[in-house]
Amino acid sequence: MSAQDHFKAASKCACLGTWIFYLVFVSSVVLLLFPGPTVESCLHPLLVALAIITIVCTVFTTIYQTEGNRILRASQLSDAFGVGIGEQMRDGYYNNNLPKTTRRLAATTLENTLFATEILHVMLTKERIKNCMYFILLIALFVCRWPSTSWLLMLAQTVFSTDLILEWIRLERFRIRTSRVHAHLEQFFLQSGNAEQPSDTAIVLAAFTDYECGKDEAVISLDQKVFDRLNPVLSKKWEGIKERLNIR
Q1: Rounded to an integer, what distance in angstroms lies between the CA atom of residue 56 and that of residue 31?
Q2: What is the band of 151 on the pLDDT scale with cuts at 50, 70, 90?
Q3: How far apart are CA 63 and CA 67, in angstroms?
Q4: Domain that holds residue 120
Q5: How many domains does the chain have?
C-alpha cells in the first residue's frame, strides 16, 4: 500500500467515527426527550456497541495514519537527498526546484507546514462547534436525567466525551507545532541558511523532525475537501513565499 492508500483508509475510519458521533448525539437527544424503560432498553445496548466501535476505529485510524506518515516521510527524504529510500512521488508533488540538499528538505517542509496550518485552522473551527454542541447536550443529560440514567449510558457518554476532548487537544497542539515549524523555517530562509553548515543543517532537521513527530502525535488526517477548496489560494501564496525567500 502507498502512503495515499494508508491515508485514505485512515480517513474512512475517521469518517466512520464522525458518523458514529452524530448517531450517539441523536440517540442521546431521544433519551432526553422520551425517557422511559422501553426507549432505554433499546438505546443503551446501541450506545455501548457504538462506544466499542469507536475505540476500534481509533485504533485503525492510528495504525493507517502513522504508517502513511512513515512512507511519506521516507519519500520526502528520498526527494530531498536523491536517494532511493521511499516511494517515487508524482512530478510536481514538491513545488520547488532546489537541488538535492538539506535546503530542499527545508523548502518542502515549509510548504507542507503552510498548507497544514491553514487547513487545521478550518478544521479546528468545525471541531470547536462540534464539541460545544456535544457538551451542551451532555450537561442537559446530567441535569435532566441524572437520577434515572444507568451506568451504561454514562459509560458511553464518558467514552465519547473523552475521545472528543483528546481529538480537540491533538488538533490544537498540532496546529501550534506546525505554525512554530513554519516560522522557524521561514526564518532559516530569511537568513539565507547554508545547507553546508552543520548548524544550519541541524536547524532544518530539528524543524523537519518536530513537524513529523507532530503528525504522528496528532494521528489526524487533513480534510481533503478543505485542501481542495484552499489549494488554489495556498498555491498562489506559496509562489509568493518562494519569491520573497528566494527559494529557486
Answers
A1: 25
A2: very low
A3: 6
A4: 3-245
A5: 1
